[in-house]
Amino acid sequence: MNEDVKNRIEKLKNLINHHRYLYHVLDKEEISESALDSLKKELFDLELKFPQYITSDSPTQRIGGKPLDFFEKVKRNQIMYSFNDAFSREDMDNWEKRNKKLLSDDDYIEYYCEPKLDGLAIELTYENGILVLGSTRGDGRVGENVTQNIKTIESIPLKISFMDKLIVRGEAVINKKEFEGANKERVANGFTPYANPRNLAAGSIRQLDSKITSERKLDADIYSIVTDLGQKTHEEEHSLLKEFGFKTNNKYNKLCKNMDEVFDFYNYWQENRDSLPYEIDGLVVLINNNNIFKKLGTTGKSPRGGIALKFPLKEAVTIIEDIEIQVGRTGAITPVAILKPVTINGAVISRATLHNEKEIERLGLKIGDTAVVGRAGDVIPEVMKVFPELRTGKEKEFVMPKICPSCNCELVKPEQEVVWRCPNNNCFKRKIGWFKHFVSRGAFDIEGVGPKILEKFLEEGLLSLPSDLFTLKEGDILPLERFAEKSAQKIIENIQNKKSIPFSRFIYSLGIRNVGQKTSYDLAKRFNSIEEIKQANVEELEQINDIGPIVAKSIFEWFNDKENNLFLEKLEKEGVVYYKEETIKNIFSDKVFVLTGTMQSLSRELARERIISLGGNVSNSISKNIDYVIVGENPGQKYDKALEIGLKIINENEFIKMINQ
Ligand SMILES: [Zn+2]
User: What is the CA(562)–ligand 1 centre distance, in A?
Assistant: First the structure.
């Protein structure tokens, strides 16, 4: 066991060092910052648990990169440290606990918090009020002399009123607008764009021609004083810096009394980061009292008294423990990665889609591999990159099955497609998938009929088509009640209450391949009845917005299938009816909504789903084109902007009323 840990640590160190070298020395990146942070966090946590394996060459013990040879070296008396990362409340509470162990009970801890700019750390030295030296962090002790380049940054004063020797530190940054402009120019000139503003800021400062630096319009935020001027707190340092004439971000910072306040502040910036002209990737949290900060000392590359509290990772590194085969309601066979649970975008996930066989081949993924898992926006997490460097030799090759794991039917795949399918309409797993879809929120929305009870119903042969749900009687369910989320009587009531539903949801419930909520809505808008859709040919269907040839073909084929028509007849026979959603259509159709703040009765995701299912759209940013801004508790900057522009603002109750109309 310990030998495994030691090997893992060794491999992580090599992998991280390789990517850190690319990132810090060559200003290049092959994996995202999130993925690299996640690797570093795993190493940090392992070393915390097994300190006997910490070596001096570990990335947790070393700062930044190596100074490049073509710059003059700058030796420092006071090492320029960098902070360790934290990603969660748990990480922060552990950090606080570790610190408190080293302090006495009367050491009163307050935290000075500042948005963490994504730029390049610099140090400035003034003598007799004149800027005489500007340097990069380098390896902490030895930096690079970039004075000429730093002098081109207009917000850095070349002269200050303070006449003694003064050393300060800060961050050279490039604002989002400049970043976009510079990248556009690069692409136009045939170069690859910079991955992020930090990259561009670093590339601009660490180069030999100051003229190029001056063209890049860099900015600098100064945040600490190295020289001992008798300052007692970090907050005081910020005020002094401002007095001396440095550009500081003091107005964005906050002194927090405890960890709860730190997290309120953190949540605020997570919501409002877009309002800053610069990219930020979290907060820097520092123990405000300089004496306590010093008393805590340093560990490896970092002072114990400060930490970088990063925003949730959009990507993280974890282990692929297994690959399972999922059979969807349309028969699509999807390999799913079973993950060692990991937090992405603030939520713990344990499964990620691998899409299809080709994708596993492209990734070169084996079972047991360490991989980057990411989630773009609200979509399902997926595996993005594999680290073969971290293999132990115990990984297993994955073999795509040729028969359906549910019904043993031979799987089929048309030549030009990548997805294998189970062709058997009576396949158990496909059926389950269809039933789950049928009772889901966007379809018949039948509460209390969970996957477990559906599986039981199908196994016992009580149901064969979703229309059979409407024939169920209390006594049918009673023997299965222990599988149910609700009482048998309640379930029957729920089912019977849903015999009449809006037309778009009726269409969606049919489970037609490639037909989601939006397409269902478009169909319900264009046609008055199922009969009308049946009579439409592929060309007519294609004329509906967003419906392309593939979707049109799916729809046409579904309605021309004999079994499907029998199913529609059965639904009708059981008394299921749909109605045109005229009133709702008028309120929501083609309207654009923005959500801000926390809602009490439904999650943001659910609200978004509802809006889209009713034909509306949801945007992430405020503009003149927004029709409604839905405001929950503690709304962010979006609310202020909406007021400024004079947009229509509604609260949660008003929104719920709209949905229920
Ligand atoms: Zn099957």
Answer: 20
Give percent of the chain above pLDDT 70. Answer: 97
428-579: CATH, from 3.60.60.10, 1.10.150.20, 1.20.120.140, 3.40.50.300? 1.10.150.20
pLDDT digits (tens, 9 = 90+) for 71-110: 899 999 999 998 999 988 999 999 999 999 999 888 889 9
Q: How far is the CA of 547 from the centre of ligand 1 (A)?
A: 29
In the reported structure, the alpha carbon of residue 421 is separated from the centroid of ligand 1 by a whole-number distance in angstroms of 8
Residue owning tokens 């400049």: 178
Q: What CATH fold (topology level) applies to the domain 73-310?
A: D-amino Acid Aminotransferase; Chain A, domain 1 (3.30.470)
Count CB neighbours of 644 within 10 A. Answer: 9
Active site residue 624: no
CATH number of the 583-660 domain: 3.40.50.10190
pLDDT in tens, 612-621: 777 788 888 8
Q: Is 492 exposed, middle or buried (0-12, 13-18, 19+ CB in 10 A)?
A: buried
Indicate if the pLDDT at residue 417 is higher than 90: no
Same fold, 73-310 and 583-660: no
Is the CA virtual torsion 381, 387, 392, 394 positive or negative? positive
227-273 pLDDT per residue, tens: 999 999 999 999 999 999 999 999 999 999 999 999 999 999 988 88
Measure the CA–CA gap between 23 and 65, rounded to whole angstroms: 8
pLDDT at 308 over 90: yes
106 vs 168: which has the higher pLDDT: 168
Give the number of other Cβ atoms within 10 Å of residue 1's Cβ.
Answer: 5
How far does residue 358's CA lie from ligand 1's centre (Å)? Answer: 20
In 409-566, DSSP assigns E strands to 500-502
CA distances from 111 to 292, 306, 440, 639 (A): 11, 9, 46, 28
- C-alpha of residue 444 to centroid of ligand 1, in Å: 25
Q: For strand 315-327 and strand 617-619, is the pairing parallel, antiparallel, or unpaired?
A: unpaired
Phi, psi (5° rounding) for residue 74?
Answer: -120, 115
CA 660 vs CA 447, 584, 588, 598, 657: distances in Å: 17, 9, 12, 20, 5
pTM of the model: 0.68
Catalytic residue (choose from 116, 254, 310, 641): 116
Provide the pLDDT confidence category of residue 336 given band limits of 50, 70 and 90: very high
460 Cα–ligand 1 center, Å: 18
Among the listed residues 609, 588, 604, 600, the one whose alpha carbon sits nearest the alpha carbon of residue 661? 588
Report the range of poorest mean pLDDT among 192-206, 282-296, 639-653: 192-206
2-53 CATH fold: Helix Hairpins (1.10.287)
Whole-number Å distance between alpha carbons of 432 and 455: 7
For 314-422, CATH gives 2.40.50.140
Expressed in angstroms and rounded, the spacing between residue 334 Cα and the centre of ligand 1 is 12
Near ion ligand 1, which residues have CB within 5 Å? 404, 406-407, 409, 422, 424, 427
For residue 642 the two structure tokens come to: 């909406």
